[in-house]
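Structure ticket #2291
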Amino acid sequence: MRKHKPLLDKLTALNRGIAILIDPEKAVNEVQFARQLDAICAISPEFIFIGGSTVNAEQMSQTIEIIKATTSIPLIIFPGGTSQLNISADGLLFLSLISGRNPTYLIGQQVEAAELLFQSNMEIISTGYILVDGGFQSAVERVSGTAAIAQNDVAFISSTAKAGILLGMDCLYVDAGSGAHAPVSEEIIHELSALGRPLIIGGGLRTIASIQKAHEAGANLVVIGNKLEEDSLLIEELIGYRSRAIEVGTH
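Resolution: structure written out below.
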């Protein structure tokens, strides 16, 4: 029998959702990290994502402990590998890098993780992960040894997403990579939003305008990471953006 998945249900119902991505490697300064968590609580995103390309188990454990002690916002692991598994989180995106052809990230890491996750009480969300070209070589490309798909190849991106759906993926995550020069295009988002699976968009979302465009194109959830760490103005703008969305009944 299918387990109840409240986090997936919440993701599916979202219209203008926001997740904040925390990289534990960048959370080493306790005072700075405490300020970051205060800012995240003020924004009140639907989810906090945690993970990174090269994060180790100790970094994950320590950071998760602090987050869980600070906020009740649902915490979901966005793993870069099996070393980042931690059953203290509320959920985990069970990623398969379907844009690449490296078997380690298509199924190998997933087999290694399966025993622990199968026995855990965490909500596991099967996720088709598609990396698109954000204008530079991302950390995911380097670590996974795979190439991103060109953003102008919308038909191939769509076929990749459809393959993930046919394989039973709960949702789709399209990522231009951390620090991308160009975010995922509106054309891609619009195309994939019609496929009947919750759509998560990440990478290169540095302004309210880019976030709003992604939402209006059909993203259920956008993920904001690097820019929030370095731009305090964006925090204030995000608080205002979410307040306006609530006022007009779109959130």
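Closing remark: Residues 7-247 form a domain with the TIM Barrel fold (CATH 3.20.20.390).
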